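Dear all,

This email documents one entry for the complex benchmark we are building for the journal club exercise. For each entry we list the sequence lines for every component of the assembly. Then comes the predicted three-dimensional structure of the complex as a token string, followed by one or two observations. Please use this as the template for your own entries, and keep the labels exactly as they appear.
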Amino acid sequence: MFKNTESNDADTQKVSVIDDQMRITGTVISDGDVILAGQLEGQIICNKLTVEDGAILNGSIETGEVVISGTVTGDVASINAHIEASGHFEGDLKCIGIEVEAGAHVVAKFKKAPAKIVKAAAKLENETAE
Amino acid sequence: MDISKTKAVIGEGAHFSGTISNARSIEINGTVEADLEAEKVSIGPEGEFHGAIKSDLVVISGHYNGEMHAHSVWATETAQIAGEVHYQSLQMDRGAALNCRVVHNWTEDTGSSLPHAESEDEVTESADAETDEDAK
């Protein structure tokens, strides 16, 4: 499910956008990218997730890459997580790579990435090595 | 990134279930099982929507199944609609497949003085017997 993000850039058809007015409760599962600018309560499983400044997410995230500029409360399982200066995060981080910008608000427990994520990361590494 | 401020999109390959509220304009190219309220809804040729829609304008090019209340409904040539459609204006392109109960709503939003006109203006285009169950 988690692909190399660079190869996915041209594939704009697979990008899902949740605009800043929108409120969603439920589950979003996508093999493409998701940009969240509104509010979501529930679960997101996708390739790359961008939580924009002003966006609010309560729930769990399972992605290849996550960029947090908004507010996220919950569990994150991801190969790479990037929390920007405007980002607020509270919850569990189960990631392989974590980057936190100066100024970001992070209250988190750092845990071992689940087997699924480790496997996806290894697969991705093999693909890029080839 | 400006796109995120104006339009919501459920992309191809995305699967969403739950409720969606407060949406302005939403484009659906993936699969959605939800109850939705929005100003404009567009279901793309590859899109699939199950659930209720309340909207001003609904453009359907994909699959729809559910109860729809819309001011304007446009079913394009690739549309496949099942369930119930309540509308005030309806456009149907050649090739659109409607297998549903179609109700013209005088009373909703227009402020019309015809309180019981609904049943007289009902058109049932479906061969399914079940679609007649609510007929008054």
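Observations: The helical segments of chain A are 115-129. The radius of gyration of chain A is 14 Å.
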